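Proteins fold. Shown next:

***
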Amino acid sequence: MAQRIVMVAPNGARRTHADHTAIPITPDELATCAFECAASGASAFHLHVRGDRQQHSIDVGRYREAIAAIKDRVPDLPIQCTTEAAGVFSTDEQFAMVRELRSAWVSFSLAEMMREGPQPADDFLQWAHEAGTRIQFILYSPEDIDAFAALHRAGDLHDDHPHLILVAGRYGLDDVSSCSHFDALYARLSATGLADDTHWMTCAFGREELACLKRAMAVGSHVRVGFENAVVDHCGAPLQDNAQRVRAVCEIAQVLGIEVSSYADVRKQLHIIPEHTAR
């Protein structure tokens, strides 16, 4: 039976309690959310941390506090830490956070990584390879896919098993995606050979989030779901919480005859080393 990772992204960099009361912000809220989502079938957890006013943060101390709280509730759940700039942080600050945190797994926008040119990015990727930090590259457009493919062909990713996430749609006033957004990205991914040569995932926005993810899962994509991307259902009604969204995706997987990956499967598929052995 085919397997797919179901990663939950429960908060993101932008939404706060003012947008939905079930957005997890504090370490305790993140830990409770992780526990509930894991119980609902999530394979992995995409982590954002916040400052005292609920603002986006990449502070290492806040990451360590949140990770400890999550691991206290769900010890084996794979955790991916975001490096998102969100218009606030520089590439140097992003690189510095990853180097100090030494997480086993992070996500990083390819466009943000390359903002200061290829040499700083190459130095960082070489360091990540040596340190055992796995990177999921975030790709927003066909142009991002082409750039990623070129780096992969040249060996400049310093990664024999690269993995990526396609973002169908973009953050905006309505945070809307349609299946046509995914179709355009998937067409380019297939044309470059990356659909067969990488481990890839998809996320989407708003009312059409689940429709896009179902389409993506059917053609081989792993998926990311949660309140980072949508807080309403396909009719525009508010969702209850992140666990509800995870259950919905797992039900889609079942209908498609797909097995949801276990924590051990995630680490094996993505070559993620245990946290305590990261160098």
Remarks:
- The chain has one domain: 3-277.
- The chain is about 40% helix and 15% strand.
